[in-house]
Model the fold of this input.
Amino acid sequence: MKRTIILSLILLSALFISCSKKSVQTTESGKLKVGLVFDVGGRGDKSFNDAAYRGLEKAKNELGVDFEYIEPGPGADREAALRQFATRPDIKLIFGIGFIFTDEITKMAQEFPNKDFACVDYTYDQTKTIPPNLLALEFKEDEGCFLVGAIAGLTTKTQAVGFVGGMESPLIKKFEKSYEAGVKYVNPECKVFISYAGVTGDAFKNPGKGKELALGQYSQGADIIFHASGVTGLGVFEAARETKKLAIGVDSDQYNEAPGFILTSMIKSVDVAVFDCIRQEKDGKFNGGKAETFGLNSKGVDYIYNDKNNNLISEGTRKRAEEIRELIIAGKIATFLK
Amino acid sequence: MIENIFTYAFLLQTLRISVPYFLPSLGAAYSEKGGVVNIGLEGILLTGAFFTTLGTYYTQNIWIGILCGLTAGFLIALIHGIATITFKADQIVSGIALNLFALGLTKFLCRIIFNSSSNSARIPGLETVNIPLLSSIPILNNIFITFCIILLILSQIIFYRSKFGLRLRAVGENPAAADSLGINVLRIRYAGVLISGLLAGLGGAWLAFDQHSFTDGMSAGRGFIALAAMIVGKWKPMGAAAACLVFGFAESISIQFQGTAIPTQFIQMLPYILTIIILAGFIGKSTPPAADGIPYENTNK
Done:
């Protein structure tokens, strides 16, 4: 009796887990169909993954393609998710969203040479070649982070700003270093507090930790915090609301997460990159085996300045930021701290 | 760096971090004193958080949200009770099954309701609550923390000064003897498990309000740490509370010390290192209730 009960409970939970992973959009034969596997934070992170999703929806509306997506659970599910799409005859193009896919997607691209793959934030290793059916989509986050760093450095009243990172990794370190460089460029005296939520992928989905880290930095005197931490950043915004201080969003325009407390957002047009890639595939012009780079000059990265937040950024700051933008594009500023 | 530890903000942070450990930890004490191991607390915490979010999202009323979280916790605990007390299933296996079930259920429902298996929509939080007198006292202005202190004192009284507490401890130590004195062992054990479900559900409500949303897997192992804290605290409410505070303190330190010369990876190990040191060195012998984990079979029938 007890075995039966336990067994059925386990089976039931397994059923739920497997159900929750997959989502099937309407399927019609003949159309181009793409599969997309989200990063750790998943749909609804109001940031990186949602930006990718916007690209998918735009492609669906404007190009008439179909899509399916998977939000993988923790750990080893990523490869399984990519493989699930790769083995499907109706799916031609497969996206991995996030640097965390780098190894898995390279392996899958080699294993399935007649499918096309694209990876956002692919970690490019100079010593290895990218498979011809894999397109690496890279962003010059350093340029965008430098700019928002400069804005923070010009706006701070306490001469202290903060940075909250998700998983401590080369990519997020790049955010941190160039943000700090931006702050110091305009305001050498300004202190920069730095915290990370963890050293594993789960550090991108821990808003509770993000909130505590941010409250810690605010209590030490910071009045602006930039986060690069996926869902964890939602906790940073809660801290900003609670203490009535400012935060800087990342990847998407995050103003609406805490209206009035978001100074600006460092946006990465992941949506544009995803959309362009699908369009190339549809036109038969998919061109893998290389890295495509999006920077300030192509508006692949930028900061937000619009009706909502222009009362938070002073006229002088805005002007200075635009000057710095030109200098970065002209290559006259090193956007990294050595 | 050190001076940051002696601030009011640091004290509050420690308390806040301790709350989601303390509530399930206290719950575990109720359950295990009565002789039922409840490792399903992790899942109950998660389910409580989800249903609190759901209730609050639909009604925009945090009290209804809390009620939903409590109900969810109660029902999951009821499943555990039915499986392990009535049907005498292995308590560990049932707990693991419930944890897996909760993980899948919350993801599944989140996907259906919020169109994302990872994150829910934003809900209002506790800052909207203002209790006249209490709000003027710094620490007590957080209603959850106040409530935790009340619960702790109450539990200490219930455990050691009430008839129910005596019976609970009796069915955990020697159910046969308790049975022979006319105590309904199964009913008392049910009470212990269900109380643990309510408390863990409340812990889930705290998590949901603290971050104003539900994120899948947001309990992040807190239920297990709560169990460990209860064992470190020798199955006593006060002990469990003290252990949870130590965890909260260690985690708080790891947050404060970030960005210093010490590598992040090392700082993030701190809470766990501290736990091992305390477990190995300072606690002494920690003896569980004699009948803990053993289903009770009435042999007289």
Summary: The longest helix of chain B spans residues 185-211.
